[in-house]
Amino acid sequence: MRLTGKCHCGNIGFEVDWPDASPRIPARACGCSFCVKHGGVWTSHPKAALRVRVQDAALASTYEFATRTATFHICGRCGVVTVVTSSIDGRTYAVVSVNALENVDAGQLDRGGANFEGEAVDSRLARRERNWIGAVQFEGPPARAG
Predict the structure, then answer these.
(1) String of DSSP letters for 107-123
(2) What structural domains and CATH numbers belong to the chain?
(3) For 98-131, how does the pLDDT look when each residue is reduced to its tens digit (9 = 90+)?
(4) Bridge pairing between strands 135-139 and 49-54
C-alpha cells in the first residue's frame, strides 16, 4: 500500500511504500516538548520505503534540539513538520507525520502515546534502527538548517 502526505502548501511531500496491503497504522503522539507544542503524531514501519520531495529548498528548513539525534523537516511557508529523520552509522531513518497523511482513513490508525524522556542516546538510536523507516530517499534540493 502506498501512503501519501504533504505539508499544507505542498512544498514538502512524501510517499511511503507500506508493506501491508490493508494496514493498521500505528500513530504515536510523542511526549517530547517539541512534539507536544506542534501536535506531533508519527508513524513508521521498519520494512517501509520513504521518498520525500522538496519543491523549493529555500522554503524548507530543519530543526534539532537536545540530543541532536533527530532532525525535524519543516516547511517555512506553512510551518508543517512532515518528516523526522535520524542519521545512524551513515544511514538515514525516518518517521512521517500522521497529521500530514492524505489517503488514510482515520479508522486505520492505532493511536497511542510515546514518551522517551530520559532515554539514553544509545537506546534511542537502537530503537530507531528497529522501528523507524530504514529506506529513505530525498528528492529535490536539501532543506537548509534552521
Answers:
(1) GGEEEEEE--TT--HHH
(2) 2-145 (2.170.150.70)
(3) 999 998 988 999 999 888 878 899 999 999 999 9
(4) parallel
